[in-house]
C-alpha cells in the first residue's frame, strides 16, 4: 500500500464517480466495467508480485485511463482539463496529478505502437499490464466483437490479411474483428512487464487460440 500520509491521498470515490459518469454510455468495450476490472487486475498484480507502489496512483490511473483517450472522448484537451479538476477536487497532490497524467497520457497500445510512447514508472507498468490483460481471454473476445460492431467492421474476411499498422487513423479504422486478434491482441503477452500478467496473458491467449480454432472450423462448415 501507499506510504503517503492519509491527508494527501486522493478521495478515490470522487474519481470512481467521475469515471462512471464519463464512461457510462460507452458502447465500444471501454465502459465503466472495463476500468473497474483494470483497477482490480492492477491490485492483483501488486499482490501477486509483492510490489511496493503508491496504490492510490495505481487505482486512480486505472479508473481514469480511458477518460482522456480519443477513442472514447471527442475533445481530448477538454477531457484532460476535466480530469485535472476532478483530481484537484479529490485532493490529489501536484506530484500525484503529474504522475497520473504521465500514466494515462501514454498508456494506450496505439500510442506505444505508433508514437513510441513509454510508461516507465512501476505504477504505470502495472496499470498498462492490467489494461492489456482485459483485452485478452473471454472478455477480450467479447470486447473486440463489441468494438468491431460499433465501428461497422466486418466479422471476418478470409481473403483480407491482417495489417501491420504504422498510422494511427489506419489503426483506429481496423480491418476485421478476427484480424484484430493478430493485429494487436496476440502481440500483448510478449509486451507484459510483470510476472503475474505475463503468466495470465499466456493462459488467456491459449483460450483465444482454442476459440479461433473452433471459429474457423464453424466458418468453413
Ligand atoms: P489502446 O487505446 O490501448 O490503443 P485499443 O483501442 O487499441 O487500445 O484497444 C482497446 C480494446 O478495444 C481492444 O483490446 C479491442 O478489444 C478493442 N479494439 C480496439 N481497436 C479495435 C479494432 N480495430 N477492432 C476490434 N476491436 C478493437
Ligand atoms: Ni483500457
What is this entry, summarized?
This protein is an all-alpha fold. It has a single domain, classed as Hypothetical protein af1432. Helix content is 62%, strand content 0%.
Give the arrangement of secondary structure elements.
Blueprint: H1 12-23, H2 32-48, H3 55-64, H4 76-89, H5 94-106, H6 109-115, H7 122-133, H8 137-150, H9 168-173, H10 177-183, H11 195-219
Helix pairs in contact: 1-3, 2-3, 2-7, 3-5, 3-7, 5-7, 7-11, 8-10
Residues 29, 69, 71, 108-110, 135, 140, 143-144, 147-148, 153, 174, 177, 180, 184 line the site of adenosine-5'-diphosphate (ADP).
Structure description:
- By secondary structure, this protein is an all-alpha fold.
- The chain has eleven helices and no strands.
- It binds adenosine-5'-diphosphate and nickel (II) ion.
The CATH top-level class label: Mainly Alpha
In total, the number of domains comes to 1
Mean pLDDT: 90
Based on helices, strands and strand pairing, what is the structural class? mainly alpha
Determine the CATH topology.
Answer: Hypothetical protein af1432
Bound molecules: adenosine-5'-diphosphate, nickel (II) ion
Intertermini distance: 53 Å
Assign an overall shape.
globular
Number of helices: 11
Radius of gyration: 18 Å
SSE run? HHHHHHHHHHH
Question: Which CATH architecture is right?
Answer: Orthogonal Bundle
**Total strand count, please?**
0
Strand content: under 5%
